[in-house]
TrEMBL record:
Keyword vocabulary terms for this entry: Nucleotidyltransferase, RNA-binding, rRNA processing, Transferase, tRNA processing, tRNA-binding
Name of protein: Ribonuclease PH
Catalytic activity: tRNA(n+1) + phosphate = tRNA(n) + a ribonucleoside 5'-diphosphate
Top-level taxonomy: Bacteria, Pseudomonadati, Pseudomonadota, Alphaproteobacteria, Hyphomicrobiales
Stretches assigned to the Exoribonuclease phosphorolytic domain: 10-140, 160-224
Taxonomic source organism: Hoeflea phototrophica (strain DSM 17068 / NCIMB 14078 / DFL-43)
Gene3D superfamilies in the record: GHMP Kinase, N-terminal domain
Entries under NCBIfam families matching the protein: RNasePH
InterPro entries: ExoRNase_PH_dom1, ExoRNase_PH_dom2, ExoRNase_PH_dom2_sf, PNPase/RNase_PH_dom_sf, Ribosomal_Su5_D2-typ_SF, RNase_PH, RNase_PH_bac-type, RNase_PH_CS
Family affiliation: Belongs to the RNase PH family.
GO BP terms, alphabetized: rRNA 3'-end processing; rRNA catabolic process; tRNA processing
Role description: Phosphorolytic 3'-5' exoribonuclease that plays an important role in tRNA 3'-end maturation. Removes nucleotide residues following the 3'-CCA terminus of tRNAs; can also add nucleotides to the ends of RNA molecules by using nucleoside diphosphates as substrates, but this may not be physiologically important. Probably plays a role in initiation of 16S rRNA degradation (leading to ribosome degradation) during starvation.
PROSITE patterns: RIBONUCLEASE_PH
Length: 238
């Protein structure tokens, strides 16, 4: 039995609230159960110096956790003068995931930055961030389309979403919350496109090594969950 009472293949309740930021070109508050992440997409009419005059744009991401997103107050990373290794790793993952479904030349020499701020954490913050970031990116491109800057269907080639799966109490389960994540025997994150392409798989055995058969079970759970997430994305932006 999972602590939440969910079935092994059951995700937490997922929701997307669009247009939550007055100023951002695209925004989405994504909730995976008690994990809540605010994603805002900002457009700049420039690209990084190393991309100038290259005829293509750039999509990148930043990630952070608010001080009381967790049980005890966390210090803001800005107070220490640098970002932690986990933060850097996650924001690079979000950026790679989004770029996997973007036609950068079709974007033109512009940069879109998606900021993913964790308001409340209960496991799976990176996977929620990726899934909500796609919505924010889509809405930013829609904002651009309304101003005759791009065509969304030319720039955004596919959906992308992510989910955590793991081995908990000897069973393969979908969408780990904190109680499961903190004591899972195996923890894995899957990032996939709407057409089933694999963007990234991160898998770690926390105790005993996991088997190829268990990896296949996790992959099966992830594919089914991401299909559901993509369906929810499509419904949200329809």
């Amino acid at each position: 039995m999972r602590p939440s009472g969910r079935k092994t293949d059951q995700m937490r309740a997922v929701s997307f609230e669009r247009g939550v930021s007055k100023h951002a070109e695209g925004s989405c508050l994504v909730k995976f159960g008690d994990t809540h992440v605010l994603c805002t997409a900002s457009l700049e009419e420039r690209v990084p110096p190393w991309l100038r005059n290259g005829g293509k744009g750039w999509v990148t991401a930043e990630y952070g956790m608010l001080p009381r997103s967790t049980g005890d107050r966390m210090r803001r990373e800005a107070t220490s003068g640098k970002q932690g290794g986990r933060t850097l790793e996650i924001q690079r993952l979000i950026g790679r995931s989004l770029r996997a479904v973007v036609d950068l030349p079709a974007l033109g020499e512009r940069q879109i930055t998606v900021d993913c701020d964790v308001i409340q954490a209960d496991g799976g913050t990176r996977t929620a961030a990726i899934t909500g970031a796609w919505i924010a990116l889509h809405d930013c491109l829609k904002w651009m389309e309304e101003r005759s800057m791009v065509k969304v269907e030319r720039v955004l080639k596919d959906h992308v979403a992510a989910v955590s799966c793991g081995i908990f109490a000897g069973q393969a389960v979908t969408d780990l919350d904190y109680l499961e994540d903190s004591s899972a025997e195996t923890d894995a994150n899957f990032v996939m496109t709407g057409t089933g392409g694999i963007v990234e798989i991160q898998g770690t055995a926390e105790g005993e090594p996991f088997t190829e058969e268990q990896l296949g079970q996790l992959m099966g759970l992830a594919k089914a969950a991401i299909n559901d997430l993509v369906a929810l994305q499509k419904s949200a932006v329809a």
